[in-house]
UniProtKB/TrEMBL annotation, chain A:
Keywords: Membrane, Transmembrane, Transmembrane helix. The chain crosses the membrane at residues 33-51, 71-90, 111-137, 149-178, 185-203, 242-260. Coiled coil: none annotated. It holds the Pfam family ABC2_membrane_6. It comes from the Bacteria. InterPro entries: ABC-2_transporter-like (IPR010390). This is ABC transporter permease. The keyword DNA-binding does not apply.
UniProtKB/TrEMBL annotation, chain B:
Keywords: Membrane, Transmembrane, Transmembrane helix. Pfam families: ABC2_membrane_6. The chain crosses the membrane at residues 31-50, 70-91, 149-175, 206-225, 231-251. The keyword Transmembrane helix applies. This is Cyclic nucleotide-binding domain-containing protein. It comes from the Bacteria. The keyword Transmembrane helix applies. It comes from Cohnella terricola. PANTHER family: INTEGRAL MEMBRANE TRANSPORT PROTEIN, SLR0610 PROTEIN-RELATED. Residues 50-105 form the Cyclic nucleotide-binding domain.
Length: 272, 268
């Protein structure tokens, strides 16, 4: 029992150290950060134009429970979460192609655990910066984000949301152990997140039948849950959403573990 | 005169050979090719799915309907598709210049920009092109006039993609490492060509018809296909060809400033 605890403590320390290095690594590439922020500003500007036109510029109109202000802020939150995710699939694919995976596999840290540490560190930093940058452009157009406890709901659900995003990306990325090229699969996953994940359109605005389909998929737990909770806080629903996220994390983590173990036995690497 | 004709003929044969080699190279990994192109095809359809949901809620937005946005995607993806299949290096000029990879093209007895552009074929772009044609066949006007207008739309769209990225890529000659900036411009330009031009107003609208001329692509479904406006069609054609010419002149100008270490190497 004591040994088991020591093992977990050591794993935690290693994960924290990797996360710290990943955080410092990001600070070293400020231009890259600025470029990504530029794209966020740009795409939010396009969304503001699109939705303002759709609502006819009317701030009072309510469509499926969303005013123009709520929908634009909802998009800020989904975009901040989406752009927070580092390119995990491309990284795994590159490691498999150039043989670096051989070095990762012999390190005294779980391969998936290593990538999760890097992902968590980068994603959390980016998410917070994106929230600030997104607010800077949205505030002047639609007003302040006065959502009260909504902010608490957003933050409470964002950790689970990013973990689910990591696991979905890991499933696609680990396919590189079989097919090497995963960009096509990644594009499809990304677009599923954009649409039935609720990134571009709140699920409430979708047809009834599609809402029922979305309820059985993990994508809404990664984007829709935190963003909707931010603009429509509901304590009872928050507990339910946290439970749904926990269930998806368990299912997807199991799938990632299985795929990784099977993939690692198939992998042949020269050099690295 | 005869020499000029000979030179054009030789260049045409060179381009044709490059395209054949690129195709053969892509076909070497047939499964991968089909998978990538197929995924891009699906990827674009998912975008149309989003738009169908959007227009399900808001049937008409500034005069645009789902049908118009589908044709917008057909023109944008189709135009990008042919451009990236035949001149696949156009989004990578800045990177090629900044990393000294231009050396290898300078040693070839062919126009440098042409050599750079035709030496790569984007595999995923085949899916974009197929998607564009498929959507046009689904919702477009398939009469002879309709087909000719659609082909003109594809030509304008593809040329604008190439021209804008060549001009942006040339910035690497003057400011050095411009990869990040051109990549962002590329992403933004593509995004702008897939949203109805009429959602923008004021300065934003002015910008998409001047600084970042994506409006000449995103207005094509209305100004060229739905209710053809000769003035817009002529202007868009003129802008597409004019910017292509400007891009090649700027590249030639930039070449005079080009310097690198010796990075001549075999390309695999």
């Amino acid at each position: 029992m004591g040994e088991e605890i020591n093992r977990w403590t050591a794993a935690g320390r290693k994960a924290a150290a990797v996360g710290k290095i990943a955080f410092r690594h990001q600070l070293a590439y400020k231009t890259d950060f600025a470029m990504r922020c530029f794209f966020l500003l740009f795409i939010l500007f396009v969304f503001i134009q699109l939705w303002s036109t759709a609502y006819g510029g009317n701030f009072e109109t309510v469509i499926s429970g969303f005013t123009l202000k709520q929908i634009v802020w909802y998009l800020v939150f989904t975009e901040a979460l989406t752009l927070a995710a580092p390119p995990l699939c491309a990284r795994i694919e590159e490691e498999v192609k150039n043989g670096d995976v051989a070095i990762r596999l012999i390190r005294p840290q779980s391969y998936v655990g290593y990538h999760f540490s890097v992902f968590a560190s980068e994603a959390l930093t980016r998410f917070l910066v994106h929230l600030l940058v997104g607010s800077a452009i949205t505030w002047p157009f639609v007003g302040p984000p006065a959502f009260g406890y909504g902010w608490f709901g957003l933050l409470a659900l964002s950790a689970g949301a990013l973990t689910i995003t990591f696991l979905l990306l890991a499933i696609v990325g680990l396919c590189a152990f079989w097919v090497e090229e995963t960009s096509g699969l990644y594009f499809v996953l990304q677009k599923l997140q954009f649409t039935i994940g609720g990134m571009l359109l709140p699920i409430d605005l979708m047809p009834e039948w599609l809402q029922r389909v979305c309820a059985w998929l993990p994508f809404q737990a990664a984007l829709y849950f935190p963003a909707r909770m931010a603009v429509h806080y509901d304590a009872a629903l928050l507990a339910k959403h946290l439970a749904v996220q926990a269930a998806w994390i368990a299912v997807l983590a199991f799938a990632v573990g299985r795929i990784y173990r099977r993939g690692a036995t198939k992998l042949h690497v020269n050099g690295g | 005169m005869l020499t000029a004709v000979n030179r054009i003929g030789a260049n045409a044969r060179y381009v044709w050979t490059c395209w054949k080699v690129n195709l053969a190279s892509a076909m070497e990994y047939r499964l991968s090719f089909l998978l990538l192109a197929g995924m891009m095809f699906v990827n674009n359809f998912i975008w149309l799915f989003f738009w169908s949901l959007f227009f399900g809620r808001f049937p008409i937005v500034q005069g645009w309907e789902l049908h118009d946005v589908m044709l917008l995607w057909a023109i944008s993806a189709g135009g990008f598709g042919w451009a990236a299949m035949l001149f696949g290096n156009f989004p990578r000029i800045a990177s090629i210049v900044a990393t000294g990879q231009l050396d290898v093209y300078l040693s070839q007895p062919r126009p440098v920009l042409l050599s750079v552009l035709v030496s790569r074929c984007s595999v995923t772009a085949a899916g974009d092109f197929a998607f564009g044609v498929a959507v046009y066949l689904m919702v477009g006007d398939t009469s002879l006039t309709g087909a000719l207008l659609f082909v003109l739309g594809l030509l304008i769209s593809g040329l604008l993609f190439i021209a804008v990225m060549v001009i942006a890529g040339c910035s690497a000659f003057f400011i050095g490492n411009a990869e990040g900036m051109t990549q962002q411009l590329f992403n933004s330009f593509i995004a702008l060509t897939t949203y109805p031009s009429d959602i923008f107003r004021g300065l934003a609208k002015l910008a998409i018809f001047t600084i970042v001329p994506a409006g000449f692509i995103s207005y094509l479904p209305i100004g060229l296909l739905k209710s053809p406006e000769p003035g817009f069609a002529i202007l868009a054609t003129f802008v597409a060809f004019g910017l292509t010419l400007a891009g090649s002149l700027l590249f030639r100008l930039g070449l005079r400033k080009y310097a690198s270490g010796n990075t001549i190497a075999m390309r695999s």
